[in-house]
Write a structure and sequence with these properties.
- Helix 1 runs antiparallel to helix 2 (about 30-45) and helix 1 crosses helix 3.
- By secondary structure, this protein is mostly helical.
- It has 3 helices and no strands.
- The model has no long low-confidence stretch (mean pLDDT about 95).
Length: about 60
């Protein structure tokens, strides 16, 4: 698997879990949902993502 695919899987999982926790446990979990979305937003403009760097250090390959 590539960094991009794993990154999408992790972000989607984080968002789904935080929405479920926000609905059933506490609305404060929606802050985590916002954080993940904001990180995706800024990485679209800056072309840098901390999670992508972490995944590369674990040995996942880029798509290039």
């Amino acid at each position: 698997m590539t960094v991009n695919r794993v990154l999408h899987i992790i972000a989607g999982t984080f968002i789904m879990i935080s929405v479920v926790l926000g609905y059933y446990m506490s609305p404060w979990f929606f802050i985590f949902t916002f954080f993940v979305g904001a990180n995706l937003f800024q990485s679209g403009f800056s072309n840098w993502c901390l999670m992508a760097d972490i995944l590369k250090k674990f040995g996942l390959r880029d798509e290039t």
